[in-house]
């Protein structure tokens, strides 16, 4: 039985073959294959775990090879694979058969000195890659059982699956994992507890290990059927009914959630922009299976997948602090981990007090907003992470916060206000569809809470619009390309003339005109209209036009 492990670098990672050779000489453990310190330390953990699990550690000189040799191996997830390879070689010292992925087993897990197996990150990515390569078996830590169970479900090739169904074994101890390996190799007599693994069904050995069969449900590589638009529960304290005096902002947030449009809200301190935007997650529908798969993979790679979670169905809502570094936002570092923009994939990235973020961080958002991905190059290796996120920004109109206020005096020099807004740059703001200027003034009819601004009411329209978009184009309106806009968002003569007049009046760029059309398409979807009307364009222009301090950028 050939043993395969996984090196989690970037979004893809790579499979690693673990080989062991026993030879005469002074007892020692040698390791080759460009292993980092964490992998090299596995030699001592593996030695202690084997002995404390009741096995005899080989007295020969041991050579461990991790191939391909030119790929750097990182992390403690190789412990279990190395230990099983050593044990397998000690009981079966003959020359192995020619390599065959169909007879290989993917093994991941970190070992404690007692032999207990600890959870590791990247199990979802490892099993996804292994499934594409045709591996049929895998052994993972018991703590990663729920994460791996997604791949233990059988499916048909017509459903867009990758390769043959897999059988996933979750082991809590080294002895359990070796029992599984012996059963897969057909060498039950070499195992401590003895277990015979059938070709299908469920089996539970004396050691109590869990064997997951591959005959339940299906996992789709692509979306094949319509999924109902559903929403998750939320705390009652986060209902939009509790927000008073900002009906225009809440309407803008509903449109943003329905079409996944980027939004910036700016106004004096205390006007409610942070309060409203921080509750935006309550308006987000749950992810489809196609959307949830890459999100689950990213969180698995980052080691942030909640315990017991098979698939992340709730849209991510990320709110990093203003002190976040460039690597923290876009990703990178020594091991090329995902940043906040990737952790917000198919979800929301909310930057509160956005002007306080480093200028380099804000400018780095421009390319991912346009392309939906981020390419990271580190030490001669390149990793590409998905980064299709919705951007929400909250900012003051000036350093003191009183610019444009009718009842307060702004103490900022005009030059200071201009420099304040230049931290964003016009190219970044041009990628933001909705721009809302807020004030502390309340309308006469806005002093009482209104049911029409409650989260339940807002979700009704968002659900309808989301369902229409999924059926019509399979993606949100904000992600429409120029060619798709011409086909899916036709305008009659009067409506197009009104848009052109507004574009000349407010100085919209070509991208800004497309933003207005996409906003109008979302507004029409909310109102259940098949075609875009003039009033939809007028509301879209009102949402996109520049007001307050932001006009200094255009």
Write a short abstract of this structure.
This protein has helices at residues 37-40, 42-52, 79-91, 123-133, 145-149, 174-185, 247-259, 273-278, 289-302, 326-330, 340-343, 359-363, 366-371, 414-422, 426-429, 455-472, 482-488, 493-506, 510-526, 534-544, and strands at residues 2-7, 14-23, 29-32, 61-67, 104-107, 110-111, 117-118, 137-141, 167-171, 210-212, 263-266, 317-318, 331-332, 337-338, 348-351, 373-378, 381-386, 390-395, 434-437. By secondary structure, it is α/β, with parallel strands linked by helices.
Textual characterization of the structure:
This protein has 554 residues and is α/β, with parallel strands linked by helices. The chain has 20 helices and 19 strands. The strands form five sheets. The protein has an eight-stranded mixed β-sheet with strand order 3-4-2-1-5-8-9-10. The protein has a five-stranded parallel β-sheet with strand order 12-15-18-11-19. The longest helix is centred in the C-terminal third of the chain and has 18 residues, at 455-472. The radius of gyration is 28 Å and the shape is elongated. The model is unreliable at 154-163, 192-225 and 444-451 (pLDDT under 50).
């Amino acid at each position: 039985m050939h043993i395969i492990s996984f090196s989690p670098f970037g979004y893809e990672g790579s499979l690693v073959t673990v080989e062991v050779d026993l030879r005469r000489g002074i007892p020692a453990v040698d390791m080759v294959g460009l292993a980092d310190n964490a992998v090299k330390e596995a030699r001592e953990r593996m030695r202690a775990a084997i002995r404390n699990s009741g096995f005899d550690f080989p007295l020969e000189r041991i050579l461990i090879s991790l191939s391909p040799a030119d790929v750097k191996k990182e992390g403690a997830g190789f412990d279990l694979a190395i230990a099983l390879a050593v044990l397998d070689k000690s009981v079966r010292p003959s020359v192995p058969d020619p390599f065959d992925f169909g007879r290989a087993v993917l093994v991941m897990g970190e070992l404690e000195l007692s032999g207990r197996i600890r959870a590791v990150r990247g199990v979802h990515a490892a099993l996804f890659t292994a499934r594409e390569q045709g591996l049929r078996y895998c052994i993972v830590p018991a703590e990663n059982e729920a994460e791996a169970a997604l791949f233990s479900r059988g499916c048909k090739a017509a459903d867009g699956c990758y390769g043959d169904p897999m059988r996933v074994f979750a082991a809590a101890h080294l002895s359990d994992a070796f029992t599984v390996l012996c059963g897969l190799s057909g060498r039950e007599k070499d195992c401590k507890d003895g277990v015979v693994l059938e070709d299908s069904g469920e089996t539970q050995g004396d050691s109590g290990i869990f064997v997951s069969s591959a005959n339940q449900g299906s996992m789709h590589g692509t979306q094949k059927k319509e999924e109902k638009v559903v929403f998750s529960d939320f705390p009652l304290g986060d209902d939009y009914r509790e927000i008073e005096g900002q009906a225009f902002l809440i309407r803008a947030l509903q449109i943003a959630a329905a079409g996944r449009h980027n939004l910036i809200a700016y106004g004096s301190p205390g006007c409610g922009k942070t309060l409203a935007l921080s509750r935006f997650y309550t308006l987000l529908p749950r992810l489809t299976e196609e959307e949830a798969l890459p999100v689950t993979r990213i969180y698995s790679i980052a080691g942030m997948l909640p315990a017991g979670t098979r698939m992340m169905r709730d849209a991510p809502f990320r709110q990093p602090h203003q002190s976040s570094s460039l690597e923290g936002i876009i990703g990178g570092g020594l091991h090329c981990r995902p940043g906040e923009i990737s952790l917000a994939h198919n979800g929301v990235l909310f930057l509160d007090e956005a002007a306080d973020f480093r200028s380099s961080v804000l400018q780095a958002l421009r390319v991912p907003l346009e392309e939906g991905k981020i390419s990271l190059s580190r030490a001669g290796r390149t990793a590409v992470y998905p980064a299709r996120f919705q951007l929400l920004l909250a900012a003051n109109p000036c350093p003191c916060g009183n610019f444009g206020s009718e009842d307060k005096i702004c103490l900022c020099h005009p030059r200071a206000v201009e420099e304040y807004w230049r931290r964003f740059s016009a190219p970044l703001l041009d990628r933001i569809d909705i721009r809302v200027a807020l004030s502390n003034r309340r309308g006469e009819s806005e002093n009482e809470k209104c049911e029409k601004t409650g989260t339940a009411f807002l979700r009704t329209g968002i659900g309808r619009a989301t369902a229409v978009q999924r059926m019509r184009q399979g993606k949100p309106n904000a992600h429409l390309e120029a060619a798709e806009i011409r086909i899916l968002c036709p305008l009659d003569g009067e409506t197009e003339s009104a848009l052109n007049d507004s574009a000349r009046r407010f100085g919209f760029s070509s991208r800004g005109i497309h933003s207005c059309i996409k906003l109008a398409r979302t507004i029409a979807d909310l109102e259940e209209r098949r075609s875009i009307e003039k009033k939809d364009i007028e509301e879209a222009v009102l949402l996109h036009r520049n007001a307050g301090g932001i006009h200094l950028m255009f």
